[in-house]
Amino acid sequence: MAAIDWPATLPQSPLMDGFDFELGDGALQTSMDVGPPKARKRYSAVIEPMTFPIIVDLDGWDALKTFYYTTTDYGVNRFNITHPLTNVSVEARITRPPKPILLSHNRIRVDVQMIILLPTS
Fold first, then answer.
1. Structural domains in the chain (count)
2. Domain contains 59
3. Which residues contact 38 (CB under 8 A, 6 or more apart)?
4. Which of 10, 23, 67, 87 would you call most buried, defined as having the most Cβ atoms within 10 angstroms of its Cβ?
5. Rounded CA gap, 80 and 91, in Å?
């Protein structure tokens, strides 16, 4: 697991509105002249894209910016987060800078784009 954890000061569960998740495709299929395609593992790890929407106040927005810029080094470093569907800790990485949507003077919606990193073995 990663040495960094998703900040405890940020929401631990995503909003249902806007949450998106895909299973990873770790197989490579090759067409054959005759018969079904052959398949094999493509990667040693599979990624599962996830949109993790949260609502934060101004302090939470500052915490998220610090987490993104400093702790994860602009999304380079992996971190541990509890997967909202399985309730199990997984490694993730932010793939895009968080984009704020101002809801009111002290409420900000942020869709955090990340990938869950899963070993295939």
1. 1
2. yes
3. 29, 30, 32
4. 67
5. 5
